[in-house]
Amino acid sequence: MPDAFRELPPGLRPRTLMARGGHLRSQFMETAEAIYMSSGYVYKTAEEAEAAFANDGSRFVYSRYANPTVAMFEERLRLLEGAEACRATASGMAAVFAALASQVKAGDRVVASRALFNSCNYIVTQILPRYGVVTELVDGRDLAAWRRALAPGVKAVFCESPSNPTLELVDLAAVAELTHRAGGVLVVDNVFATPLLQRPLQLGADIVVYSATKHIDGQGRSLGGAVLGRDKLVRESLMPFLRHTGPALSPFNAWLLLKGIETLPLRVEAMGRSAAEIAAFLERHGKVARVLYPGLDSHPQHQLARRQMSGGGTLLALSVAGGKPGAFRFQNALKLIEISNNLGDAKSLVTHPATTTHHRFKPEERAELGIDDGLVRLSVGLEDPADLIADLDQALRAA
Ligand SMILES: Cc1ncc(COP(=O)(O)O)c(C=O)c1O
After folding, report:
1. Is 225 in the pocket of ligand 1 (CB under 6 A)?
2. Contact 106, 132 (CB under 8 A)
3. Topology of 14-260 in CATH?
4. Close Cβ partners of 246 (under 8 Å, ≥ 6 residues apart)
5. For the residues 142-171, what does the mean pLDDT come to?
6. Do the domains 14-260 and 265-398 sit in the same CATH topology, yes or no?
7. What is the position in ligand 1's atom list of the atom closest to the CA of 160?
C-alpha cells in the first residue's frame, strides 16, 4: 500500500530482491526492518482522518487493513513471485479460505483436485457447501477429468501442485486454460514448490496462495500466509473480504517471515539438493516399497515436473514395507529426524499422514488418494544429507 519502499535498480535477481526488496525505512535509518507493533495510527487533525478514509490506501489507518511491517513482508514476497499484488494472512489456511471465499457466492461452482491437504479438502467439501457453493473434486492428474468438470459456470478452481502428501502434480498451464475458457479463476496452493521452484502466475494461474509457516519462515517460529495475484482482483474482491473478516497477520510474525525470505533461496536450494540425494538412496533401499519425489525419473509425472518446476522440491514420501506397524517402527527408530506434522523447516521432519494429517478420511478415501498405511512424508531440512541418510538407513533396518 505505501509507495515509500526503498528504490532499487531495475532488473535485480531474486536473491537480491529477497535481501533488499520491500524495505520501508523509518526516519531513524535502521539497517534491519522495523517491527511496528501498533494496532492503530493517529491523525493530526479531523480533516486528515476524513481524507485517509476518503482516499483509501493513501496511508495506514488500522492494522487489520494494513501495517508497515506486514506491508514490507507483502512487498518482498510480491517481488519474488513477480505478482502485481500480495496480501498477507495469519496462516496458510486463512489464505486458502480467503482466496476461495472472496471469489464465490451461493450457487457458484468450485472444482478442485482431490489430492489436497486435509484442511484444504475440508474447506472445499465441508465449509463452502454450507454457504450454497456447489463443489466437485476431480483426479487432478487427469486432464480429461478437468475437461469434463470445467463447464461454463465454474467460478473458482483450486489445486495443490505438488500435493500434500502424495506429491501429485496438476498440469497448471492446461488447467489454467480450461478454467479461463469456463469463465473461472484458478487458485494454486504453491506451498510444496515454493516461489523458487514454480511460478503458477506465469503458467496462467490467477491467484497463488502460500502457507508462509512452511519454507518462508522455515525455522518453525511463526504461522503465516499470503495470497498473490493481479492488482484488480486483489483490490476488488480479496481486500474487502480480508478487511472485514480480519485474518490479519501480526506485525511480529510478519517480521519473522520477512527475515525468513532473506535466506529462502539458500535454504530451498540446499534442502532440495539433499531431498534429491535422499530420494535416490531410498529408491534403492530394500525396506522401501515406493518413493514419491517429483525429481525422480520414476515419478509418474516426472516429465510434467520438468516442464513446470525448476527442481524436485524439499519434500518426498516413502512407503515403508509392513504397512502401519512398519511405518510406526520406522518413525520410532529415528534418532535424528523427528516426528512432526509441520514441513519446510530447517529441521528434517517425518509424519504418517494416515494417522495424522489425513486421519479424518475413510480408509477407502485414503486408498483412492494413494495414502497407504505405510506412507511416511519426509520434509528434508538443512542437516548434512549424509547424517540424514545414516539415520533413515538405521531406522529402516530397525523397522
Ligand atoms: C499444502 C498446504 N496448504 C496449506 C497449509 C496450511 O497452512 P497453515 O498451517 O499455515 O495454515 C498446509 C499446512 O500444512 C499445507 O501443507
Report:
1. yes
2. yes
3. Aspartate Aminotransferase; domain 2 (3.40.640)
4. 64
5. 96
6. no
7. 1
pLDDT at 1: 54
Neighbours of 252 (CB within 10 A): 14
> Ligand 1: which residue has its CA nearest to atom 15?
117
Q: Are strands 207-211 and 225-229 parallel, antiparallel or unpaired?
A: antiparallel
C-beta of residue 190 within 8 angstroms of C-beta of residue 163: no
pLDDT on residue 246:
98
The closest alpha carbon to 111, from 92, 131, 139, belongs to 139
Assess whether pLDDT exceeds 80 at residue 269: yes
Residue nearest to atom 8 of ligand 1 (CA): 92
**What is the spatial distance between Cα 152 and Cα 111, in angstroms, rounded to a whole number?**
12
CB burial of residue 6 (10 Å; 0-12, 13-18, 19+): exposed
Amino acid at 93: M
Distance 189 CA to ligand 1 centre (A): 9
What is the distance in A from the centroid of ligand 1 to the CA of 21? 25
**Where in the chain are the domains?**
14-260, 265-398
Q: What does CATH list as the number for 265-398?
A: 3.90.1150.10
| Strands of 301-387, DSSP E | 315-320, 338-339, 349-351, 375-379
Q: How far is the CA of 92 from the centre of ligand 1 (A)?
A: 5
**pLDDT of res. 57:** 81
Backbone angles phi, psi at 79, to 5 degrees: -65, -40
